[in-house]
């Protein structure tokens, strides 16, 4: 038998469950599906941004209304919500 693992601290795929409290906004941008891969070429359809073809929570929400591809073919862009104030309040004396 192997060593016992604490299953509450790991996810199903074995990675540590590191949950961030900051809000993240995810955008799916241009389609990167290579339609000519089977013949050794490179051709994309030109779809510029993912648009869900169905309501959130349905299977149709994962298909793009513009090009018909699955959402995973579109470039994922994550914007982390940052609540910190970036203004400088420190002063230097000299």
Automatic annotation (TrEMBL):
Record's subcellular location: Cytoplasm
Keyword match Cytoplasm: yes
InterPro entries attached to this UniProt entry: ZF_HD_homeobox_Cys/His_dimer (IPR006456)
PANTHER family: MINI ZINC FINGER PROTEIN 2 (PTHR31948:SF162), ZINC-FINGER HOMEODOMAIN PROTEIN 2 (PTHR31948)
Keywords: Cytoplasm, Metal-binding, Zinc, Zinc-finger
Keyword Acetylation (UniProt): no
GO aspect biological process, one term: regulation of developmental process
Domain of life: Eukaryota
Domain ZF-HD dimerization-type residues, every copy: 28-77
NCBIfam families documented for this protein: ZF_HD_prot_N
Comp. bias intervals (Polar residues): 1-13
Stretches for region Disordered: 1-21
Protein name: ZF-HD dimerization-type domain-containing protein
GO CC annotations on file: cytoplasm; nucleus
Gene Ontology MF annotations: DNA-binding transcription factor activity; transcription cis-regulatory region binding; zinc ion binding
